[in-house]
Amino acid sequence: MATTIKNAVMTITITEKINLNGKDQGGITTATIGDINEISKRIQTVPTSEATVLTFGSAPDFVKADVRYVRITNLDDTNYVTLNIEGDSSTDFSVRLDAKASFLIILGSTGVVDYGDISGATLEDLSAIKSTANTAACDLEIFVASA
Question: In whole angstroms, what separates CA 11 from the centre of its chain?
């Protein structure tokens, strides 16, 4: 079976709106990512114990070299979650994702290969993103675009 899906260009627009002292101080930043032919969008409930949100590797995971964009949004209106960003060598970093906040990864042609390292300057592949809700279970919206 031959695919009928045609690659598309994805546009990401970040808009800040603020009028401070009578002057517009906002801004708009736009990025485009070409050759997107696969997306995944879902809502996942994260408990107060660690849960895996995304894994990166080869099929059936998200293919490391093909991932171009990741957005994780905390849909909860009160509680935060902790995102644990894990690399191949078990080095990781954690970020707090407050209620209604989003965490973005916008990537180039290498995907999550050589993505980050918390302990030094040697970049390593991203292997997983895990999350833990702080007080009560939270819903996360997860959007991934791949080439």
Answer: 15
Q: Residue type for 130, please?
A: K
Question: How many C-beta neighbours within 10 Å does residue 67 have?
Answer: 24
Q: Quick one: tokens of 2?
A: 């031959």
Paired sense of beta strands 51-57 and 62-63, if any = parallel
Taking the whole predicted model, whether its pTM rises above 0.90 is answered as no
Q: What is the pLDDT of residues 47-88, one digit of tens each?
A: 999 999 999 987 778 998 899 999 999 999 999 999 999 888
At 132, list the tokens. Answer: 């833990």
Structural contact between residues 86 and 128, judged by C-beta atoms closer than 8 angstroms = yes
Measured CA distances, 115 to 2, 15, 49, 124 (Å): 33, 25, 26, 6
